[in-house]
Amino acid sequence: MKRSLRNLVIAPFSKENRSKSFYVLALVPTILMSYFYLQSTIGPAIPFYGFIILILKQDKLFSNSEARSVEKLFGLMVVFASFFVYFIVSPFYPNISPYGLANYSLYIVGLFLIFFPIRVLKEAFSTLLLVASVFMGTFASRLAESYFTSYLPNFTSFIVSLLRAIGLDAVHSSSNPNVITLLYTLKGPVSFMVLWGCVGFFSMFVFSVILIVIMLEDPSSSKTKAIWSFLGVLGIFFVNIIRLVIIFVVSYFSGYEYFTVHLYLGYILFITWSVIFFYLFSKRNVISQKIGMIPIKLRASVDEWIYQ
After folding, report:
1. Separation of alpha carbons 267 and 40, rounded Å
2. In sequence order, what DSSP letters do the residues of the chain get, joined into one string?
3. How much of the chain, in percent, has pLDDT values that exceed 70?
4. CB count in 10 Å sphere of residue 165
5. For residue 40, which phi and psi values (nearest 5 degrees)?
6. What is the edge-to-edge ordering of all strands in the sheet holding 179-185?
7. What pTM was computed for the model?
8. How far apart are CA 211 and CA 204, in angstroms?
9. Would you state the pLDDT for residue 25?
């Protein structure tokens, strides 16, 4: 019996099961956070990106030896303690989730200590940086708001122009340049206040951090990284514009703003654009070759037309 129990404990850390056990355990916090963040997908979404980065590092991580017994024991203690972070932090932050990003960060540190020597802990930096980006994004957004709030009416004017371009009767409020009024909806005129959060700075900041982390792991040239990073951030900006337009369209034809659409649409579009962008980035060499072939094909077509 004791031998069977010992084998049960050792089996997950055996050479053939070590990688599988690590990634199964690394995925557990995302499942827990999905439960505690029922009204928001940003909670599990960020750790999920961190999980993907850990998968990309698989060969690099498991080229290292196992952790020593003392490190494993300390790691188990850290993992155990990570589930009780709420009770330590909640007196200072009453609105904190019972299992959130703080728990996740400590859990990942403990997991690394269980599976790898302590020197490998530096490889967890990129994943933990993504988690920190959520907290940094909040402060960065507030800082940016203090500098760019005066330009918010210009952003509102741009949205009004887009709504008019697609055929919606939208006007500025005469009393507040940041208020957009939709005329002739099913329930008459409906007004919306455009706040700083509508600009999408927070999503651009988080996406930029994800880009930085992934680009640090990618062996491409600096020029390639810069071009694709610019396209990625520009894309997330236009994704936010699309989000606002869809919300106004739904509100226009329903007579009021659907709370569910406003709550989830941004996250859905954020994740969708991220998947599309990183897929295209992974196929960048093929795309570059095809783009490079366009002038050659055009020249061949012109030559063929001339000599016919």
Report:
1. 8
2. -HHHHHHHHHGGGSTTTHHHHHHHHHHHHHHHHHHHTTT-SHHHHHHHHHHHHHHHTHHHHTTSPPPPHHHHHHHHHHHHHHTTHHHHHTTT-TT--SS-HHHHHHHHHHHHHHHS-GGGGGGGHHHHHHHHHHHHHHHHHHHHHHHHGGGHHHHHHHHHHHHHHTT--EEE-SS-TTEEEEEEETTEEEEEE--GGGG-HHHHHHHHHHHHHHHHH--S-HHHHHHHHHHHHHHHHHHHHHHHHHHHHHHHHHSS--HHHHHHHHHHHHHHHHHHHHHHHHTHHHHHHHHHHHHHHHHHHHHHHHH-
3. 82
4. 10
5. -155, 140
6. 170-172, 179-185, 188-193
7. 0.70
8. 10
9. 92
Which residue bears the tokens 């904190």? 96
Q: pLDDT tens digits, residue range 201-259?
A: 888 888 888 888 778 777 778 888 888 889 999 999 999 999 888 888 888 887 665 66
Highest mean pLDDT among 16-30, 131-145, 261-275: 16-30
Look at the block and give the residue holding tokens 């995302």: 30
pLDDT score for 217: 72
Q: Where are the domains of the chain?
A: 1-116, 135-308
Neighbours of 127 (CB within 10 A): 24
Amino acid (1-letter code) at residue 131: V
- Span 53-78, mean pLDDT? 88
The residues, ordered by sequence, that sit 6+ positions from 73 with a Cβ below 8 Å of its Cβ are: none
Q: Are 67 and 114 in contact (CB under 8 A)?
A: yes
Tens digits of per-residue pLDDT, 76-123?
999 999 988 888 888 877 777 777 778 888 999 999 999 999 999 888
Q: Could you tell me which residue, 2 or 269, shows the higher pLDDT?
A: 269
Best CA proximity match to 242, nearest among 140, 139, 162: 162
Q: Is residue 194 within 8 Å of residue 155, measured between CB atoms?
A: yes
> For residues 78 and 71, is the Cβ–Cβ distance under 8 A?
no
Q: What is the dihedral of CA 84, 86, 87, 88, to 10 degrees?
A: 100
Q: Can you give the length of the chain in residues?
A: 308
